[in-house]
Amino acid sequence: MSAITRDEVAHLARLSRLALADTELDHYAAQLDVIIGAVARVAEVATDDIPPSSHALPLTNVYRPDEVRRCLTPEQALAAAPAVQDSRFRVPRILGEEA
Amino acid sequence: MTTTNTVMPYDEALARFEPVIGLETHVELGTASKMFCGCPTSFGAPPNTHVCPVCLALPGALPVANDKAIESTIRIGLALNCTIAEWCRFARKNYFYPDMPKNYQISQYDEPLCTNGYLDVEVDGRTVRIEIERVHLEEDTGKSTHMGGATGRIQGADYSIVDYNRAGIPLVEIVTKPVEGTDRLAPEVAKAYVTELRELMRSLGVSDVRMEEGSLRCDVNVSLMPRGTTAWGTRTETKNVNSLRSVERAVHGEIERQAAILAEGGRIIQETRHFHEDTGATTPGRSKEEAQDYRYFPEPDLLPIAPTPEWVEELRSELPEPPTVRRRRLQAEWGVSDLDMAAMHNADAFTLVEATVTAGVPAADARKWWMGELARRANESGTALADLPITPEQIARVVALVASGALNDKLARQVLEGVLAGEGSPDEVVEARGLRIVSDEGELSSIIDQVLTANADAADKVRSGKIAAVGALVGGVMKASRGKADAGRARELILERLGVSE
Amino acid sequence: MSLTRKTAAELGALIASGEVSAVEVTQAHLDRIAEVDGEIHAFLHVAADAALEQASAIDAKRAAGERLGPLAGVPVAHKDVFTTKDMPTTAGSKILEGYRPPYDATITARLREAGLVILGKTNLDEFAMGSSTENSAYGTTHNPWDLGRIPGGSSGGSSAAVASYQAPLSTGTDTGGSIRQPAAVTGIVGMKPTYGGSSRYGVIAFASSLDTPGPFARNVLDAALLHEAFSGHDVMDTTSIHSEVPPVVEAARRGDVSGLRVGVVKEFGGEGYQAGVLARFQDSVELLESLGAKVVEVSCPSFTYALPAYYLIAPSECSSNLARFDGMRYGLRVGDDGTHSAEEVMALTRAAGFGAEVKRRIMLGTYALSSGYYDAYYGSAQKVRTLIARDFEAAFHQVDVLISPTTPTTAFPIGERADDPMAMYLADLCTIPANLAGNAAISVPCGLADEDGLPVGLQIMAPVLGDDRCYRVAAALEKAFESRWGGPLLKEAPAL
């Protein structure tokens, strides 16, 4: 049985904002199936009594003081923008939620 | 499913259903710099001037957490009687949206900094305990302006333009547990909770909590269950509720809307609804039934937060007096009735009165001005009391002028009117409008002479012993002096002139 | 001897003493780049003017009587994953083609402060994902030992630049072996410092909890000098360690192993390893013993789960880290013709801007983090991470350092594994545990494989903040090997 279906890959592509062609979906589905099958081995040793590690080292509590630092200029901030209007980043129409 | 906009009248809705409410409140912290970078947080700067590689999510930039924001969140948690986590992490909430530069929000997921607290609020003379589920820290998004559509709304817009000045401002999210048993007071309880929360934030000094600038924002959850049942109904989440009055209206409206649907045999969809400040109506947003998969995971760029018990205790010991306790203490000090306290609270006048008292005004006077003349003017102009362009210090000055006899109440009202109209300080208004009381006896005498001559009938009545008629003469003096005469002194002089004593 | 054949330490001394100018040294390397990089393709961008300008600034400082640091005026090739405000920064991706950041990475800034002359930006697998540089959107880099073979990856441009004498030093980032593996297959030294020992600020993130910048050089001392120049605490990176840089230069100069306890990782060897790699590893073990080290076998059973854990953790983090490349604020934008929504433009942009391996890992990571799969995949991988750290801890109770081959094979031919991700992933088999636990690890040349005549690397792993131990052992081996070989291994490489 395959670990991942083509439909699931299509869903992942959508979640990941990747507009993939049908042929690409097939290709990735086959490869991801092999990879997921292989990496699933981690579950063999991951017993309940082992705490997970999210970081390489067990450090805590590193903060910065609440101090204002110099910002970019609007010119610097907008320099690489694909589209600009009124000193703002112009983006295509947003569907869905109101902010 | 029904999409009609029919509503069931509130009384009928309450007769048939019991509401359960919940509130999620976002408070922008008043730190000097953003949550994860050193950009300033001040409101109203030109677009994209408060941005840097971190809050614009430029390639390679990394967040560093603001210590003041962590501290403020712990203080909020303590003030809300929460347990402070000994160890917790930030988490990434992954979803794509143009106003969120990283396309993930740094937030907290299953390890909030503060949990299990409560806030008591008073409604209608009764104390309602609102249980707090969690308080956590996250970051704000940028602001989109929608262009090309007819309404300025997102729907129908051709494109949007984004300003990231707000992106990364620290936000504290405070989530209540579902509140049951409020019955028909649900809207008032919701409003009282937000009001109390705002007072608490102010007393902690962690935020300016200005709802109109969005530094306090509310999402309101409402569900209904038929009377006699105990299983909660499906809830909706109303977003964009940005004033205290709207909180009340949103709950009220949602009860009426849901009741109509349920009464028709329809079902409530679990969804986000948007509140429209202008109409008080809500419109449907995203359906939560096709829930987003946010793929939360521990934020690897930030280290866990592990507040030491010593630090937490130190912060606890430094908490200010809770607003409810302070109000009770001041009520006793001022000798104010419960009813008057409630009136002040409802009018959002309490802190203004308090500040005015602090500025040296007797409590009764402070209350009289704020709840009387100023409340009336705020009402007339449709502004919040706190937004009137007058300060407690200016009121103190006016009250002092009255106390010294330089002004009477009527003149004082005119001075306040001048201050509100932007004519300057109380003294400047007195000067410019010539509002000082006529205390010059010579000037007063000549006015009295004119008035007695012009009102010979009334003068005769007084002479014949009908002392009550003196009121009309005093009124005449006040009128002739355009209110600037000292009415008491005028009365004395008139009686003296007419040879009558009381 | 040509200036490009000298070590960084030698060049630094020559410049400091005024025997040669920094401009001469820089020009010599720019000439070498012009001569050979057409074949190697180590550089994505050569900043000739900026480099010469910086070099003459160094010369001016010397002329003004300022004391120069040990690497002042020495050229360095900079991996194109570090932001540079005066040069394009692409991370090897089409999605950032032509992008110029408004700020320098901390390490970029420290290179400049140390007076190092940045020659340009080197090629890499897109967003540092890969083991061959074949995943670069700007063409593959070739191994100077055999132009038909890969130079390793992801920092393959940096390894090839140093191995082909285009630069005495280069920078890299190591997430699962991206410094050590390219160093091994090009016959040079590559060091992954302790996680948090070198700043990630301005390093375009692949996997935040694993990414570690580090140096490449043709010898151990040079690597230590560069390591020292750019390492140390950085307030802009919360995960950076607030402590002194371990005494790496001193350790590299000292280079002795007598009395040192060396552990051979039992799990790394045998089936799947090239015979020539195992033979050279065995030589290294014997050499260490002859130098007075005590070598024992140590078992780290969880290490066999490191590769699958890595291929869950790294893709999970990358799926989130790379979300910002959406065509809204910078970089490529595709499909903004008024008919597509922002969501569609993001998806079209990312589909066009990312290469196959990046897309594969983003989807794999998205999968591993999805509700319903999180515990089995990402959650389990995090537990394996704990187990690997425990194995290291137990091992370092017994021994001072652990050794293994750096890679199971020598450089493989270009194209051989290009569409076989699982085969490609095996290149990092031995290097990944140190990333998962945050340890220091180095790769040092240990000879040529008999069957193909290509370089083999030895990996030396030390505890967290034990970076100096890596250099100490590597330097001892280097000295012994070079006296056996009659010079550096790289002299065996064919002339270009």
UniProtKB/TrEMBL annotation, chain A:
Q: What is its EC number?
A: 6.3.5.-
Q: Which reaction does it catalyse?
A: L-aspartyl-tRNA(Asn) + L-glutamine + ATP + H2O = L-asparaginyl-tRNA(Asn) + L-glutamate + ADP + phosphate + 2 H(+); L-glutamyl-tRNA(Gln) + L-glutamine + ATP + H2O = L-glutaminyl-tRNA(Gln) + L-glutamate + ADP + phosphate + H(+)
Alphabetized UniProt keyword annotations: ATP-binding, Ligase, Nucleotide-binding, Protein biosynthesis
Q: Which InterPro entries match?
A: Asp/Glu-ADT_sf_sub_c, GatC
What is the main EC category here? ligase
Q: Does the keyword Protein biosynthesis apply?
A: yes
Q: What PANTHER family is this protein classified in?
A: GLUTAMYL-TRNA(GLN) AMIDOTRANSFERASE SUBUNIT C, MITOCHONDRIAL
Q: Which family does it belong to?
A: Belongs to the GatC family.
User: Its biological function?
Assistant: Allows the formation of correctly charged Asn-tRNA(Asn) or Gln-tRNA(Gln) through the transamidation of misacylated Asp-tRNA(Asn) or Glu-tRNA(Gln) in organisms which lack either or both of asparaginyl-tRNA or glutaminyl-tRNA synthetases. The reaction takes place in the presence of glutamine and ATP through an activated phospho-Asp-tRNA(Asn) or phospho-Glu-tRNA(Gln).
Q: How does it assemble?
A: Heterotrimer of A, B and C subunits.
* Descriptive protein name: Aspartyl/glutamyl-tRNA(Asn/Gln) amidotransferase subunit C
Q: Which organism is it from?
A: Sphaerisporangium corydalis
Instruction: Give the organism's phylogenetic lineage.
Output: Bacteria, Bacillati, Actinomycetota, Actinomycetes, Streptosporangiales
UniProtKB/TrEMBL annotation, chain C:
Q: What is the lineage of its organism?
A: Bacteria, Bacillati, Actinomycetota, Actinomycetes, Streptosporangiales
Q: Which residues form the active site?
A: 79, 154, 178
Q: Which UniProt keywords apply?
A: ATP-binding, Ligase, Nucleotide-binding, Protein biosynthesis
The UniProt catalytic activity note for this protein reads: L-glutamyl-tRNA(Gln) + L-glutamine + ATP + H2O = L-glutaminyl-tRNA(Gln) + L-glutamate + ADP + phosphate + H(+)
The protein's matches in Pfam families, at most eight in alphabetical order, are given as:
Amidase
Q: Self-association or partners: how does it assemble?
A: Heterotrimer of A, B and C subunits.
Q: What does this protein do?
A: Allows the formation of correctly charged Gln-tRNA(Gln) through the transamidation of misacylated Glu-tRNA(Gln) in organisms which lack glutaminyl-tRNA synthetase. The reaction takes place in the presence of glutamine and ATP through an activated gamma-phospho-Glu-tRNA(Gln).
Where does the Amidase domain start and stop, copy by copy? 24-470
Question: Under what name is this protein listed?
Answer: Glutamyl-tRNA(Gln) amidotransferase subunit A
